[in-house]
Amino acid sequence: MRPDLAVLPPRFLRTKEAAEFLSLSSRTLEKHRTYGTGPGYRKLGGRVVYAVDELQAWAERGAVTSTSDPRGSVLPAKRHPPAAFAPTGRYGR
Fold it and tell me: I need a surface site. Which of 9, 22, 25, 92 has the fewest CB within 10 A?
């Protein structure tokens, strides 16, 4: 007997639904994905999806007991060095 798919909980959530699940904005979740600081994700048919159990595990890894607990910190975004000054014109050689 085949289970009714309408009553099964979703195994995978798209970015918008995953962000809502975590009480984050979609943009915040996208930034975490870009910087490698967010929950694991998969690409299915070109779509980014998150497994519900991985979202829960990622949220649990962020659990802290104090503001001084280093586990509560997020990896900093990669900083790009400032562009080198390239003078132009008569005195820029």
Answer: 9
Q: Which pairs count as long-range contacts for 59-63, CB under 8 Å and 24+ apart, including other chains? A: 59/22
**CATH number reported for the structural domain that contains residue 13 in this entry:** 1.10.1660
Element (H, E) at 48: strand 47-51
CB atoms within 10 A of CB 78: 8
- Tokens describing residue 75: 């990896």
Does residue 57 sit within a domain?
Answer: yes
pTM of the model: 0.66
Domain span including residue 32: 9-62
Domain presence at residue 46: yes
pLDDT at residue 16 is higher than 70: yes
| 26-35 and 15-22 helices, crossing angle to 10° | 100
On the question of pLDDT at 72 being above 90, the answer is no
What is the number of domains present in the chain? 1
